[in-house]
Each structure stands twice: as structure tokens, then as C-alpha cells.
């Protein structure tokens, strides 16, 4: 397992495990399998409604708390200073933890213009030692610039949709300049088209690996943090088994050519649902 060092000195596994669209009981099973396999970073959110199931797997696993890296997120309807503090307490209780490693704003919802207040509540949680790191999701460069100008604690990462068909090159460049990691959500294109891509499949054949492993390797070699989701035990293992091969510069270049700026999720400026 490779770790990255975030801009506040905290270490985070570069490969983690996502649990969107997994209900509590199934989340307990999937996270238990992931922890057994060796994953140490789990990505959930209040809106996934599975923090309890995730918490149960953590508790049952017996893995020491300090070896785990647990991420959850404040949902759109909980934004604002006081709401965020309350939502955080509720998430912590559902998870059965006394701190989380990373707390993220789920969407900027720019029409409501309260992500700066939300972030300031997260700074309080950070300064009080209740979260080890804070960051954002789905922020555009203009949103990040406001946080960098108006707040004191730099976000450690921006979690955005990213896969070979949505490479996020501009965001990667901006984040690298500011010592902020990009974390890829839907890193496997939600199990869709990118896994069937001809270039990806040819590279997979060369290395005797699967298309998913090749895509995860591309993310890792781009210095991106990844959180693939699966409820299938064999895929949970497959997605973890990506540290014994490397893509060549030429293969990386071939993968970079696949970008077509094609999203599965909404554009962040269009996500203003509360
Ligand atoms: N901040 C945000 O706004 C968002 C964050 N996220 C986070 O990112 C995580 C990952 O993104 P997600 O959208 O779930 O999509 P992923 O790109 O991780 O793809 C998950 C899908 O791919 C399938 N899959 C997994 N591994 C393989 C494999 N090796 N071969 C073939 N198919 C595979 C899974 O099927 P199966 O489970 O049946 O095995 C599932 O259908 C989420 O779970 C969540 O934690 C996601 C969306 C938005
Ligand atoms: O993480 C995510 C998955 O769930 C949400 C919807 O329920 C999405 O909006 C979000 O991007």
C-alpha cells in the first residue's frame, strides 16, 4: 500500500474504498471484506446513509483506529456554520467514532453561497482536533480560490469525478501548484465504458492485468488518490492488487489521449439541490 503525505503532514493511503449506493448491511459486509483485504481508507458520506454500517465493520474488524483513515462529508442541506457542526456530530455518532480523519464539503452548491461559512465550521473542527484533515469535493477552481483567499486552513484535497474519459487536467495542474491532492471519485467510470476501452484493454493484456487495474494504476501514477467501490469480493481484491506492476511512459501517454471530458455526474455549478 502506498501512502501520500497531505499538506498538513498527515499520511493517507493513496488507494481507498468507496461505498456510495451500498446500504448499511451490505456496507458492513463490503467494508469488512475491504479491511480484511488490506484497505485502510474508507470513503462514506452522510447522504450515502450507510455511516452506521461502515462504523460496524470498523468496530468488528479489530483494526487499530490509528491505522484507519475514515472520510465522511457534509451534505448540501447541512451547509452553513452551525448546521455543519451539528451534522458532524451526527455523522460521528452514526460512525461510532470519536474523530474522523477527513471531513469534506460534498458539493459547493454555489447558488446558496455558504460554502465559505461551512468551511469555517470545518476549520473549527480541525482546530479542536475532531478531524485530522479537511477538504472539499466537486469544487471548481474559482471555488477553491475563494477558500484559499478567505480561509486559513488549506484544503488537503479536492475529490472530483475523474477517470480516463474525464482526466481533469486543469484541476490537476491547479491543485499541484497549491499542494492540494486530487482524489478521483468514480475512478472506474462507474464500471462503464472506460473499462471496455480498446487502449485500456490492450495495456491490460500486456501486463496480464484487468482493465480496472490498469485504470487504477493510471490514477496512482498521476499522483491521484483513488477510492474505487465494489460490493463484489473478487473485485474488492482485484482493485487492491495494483502495486505489483507499472505502466510505461508510453502507456501513460496512451491513457492520457483517452480524455473526452465526459461526465457521469452533474457539473458542480449545476448541482444546487438542497
Ligand atoms: N464526492 C462525490 O460527489 C462522489 C463521491 N463518490 C465516491 O467515490 C466512490 C467510487 O465511485 P463510484 O461512483 O462508486 O464508481 P467506481 O468508478 O468506483 O465504480 C463502481 C462500479 O464499478 C464496478 N466495479 C468495481 N470494480 C470493478 C472491477 N474491478 N471490474 C469491473 N467492474 C468493477 C462496481 O460494481 P460492483 O460493486 O457490483 O462490484 C460498481 O458498479 C464512491 O463509492 C463514493 O465513495 C462517488 C460519487 C460522487
Ligand atoms: O457522492 C455522491 C453520491 O451521492 C449523491 C446523490 O445521492 C451524489 O450527489 C454525490 O455526488
Description:
This protein has about 270 residues and is an alpha/beta fold. It is about 40% helix and about 15% strand. It has ten helices and ten strands. It has helices spanning about 25-35, 50-60, 80-95, 115-125, 140-150, 170-175, 200-205, 210-220, 235-240, 250-255, and strands at about 5, 10-15, 15-20, 40-45, 70-75, 100-105, 130-135, 155-160, 180-185, 225. The strands form two sheets. The chain has an eight-stranded parallel beta sheet. A two-stranded antiparallel sheet has the order 1-2. β7, α5 and β8 (about 155-160) form a beta-alpha-beta unit. The longest helix has 15 residues, at about 80-95. It is globular and about 55 Å long. The N and C termini lie far apart (about 35 Å). About 45% of the residues are buried. The model has no long low-confidence stretch (mean pLDDT about 100). 1,5-anhydro-D-fructose (NHF) binds near residues 47 and 265. InterPro entries: AKR, Aldo/ket_reductase_CS, NAD(P)_OxRdtase_dom_sf, NADP_OxRdtase_dom. Keywords: NADP, Oxidoreductase. Belongs to the aldo/keto reductase family.
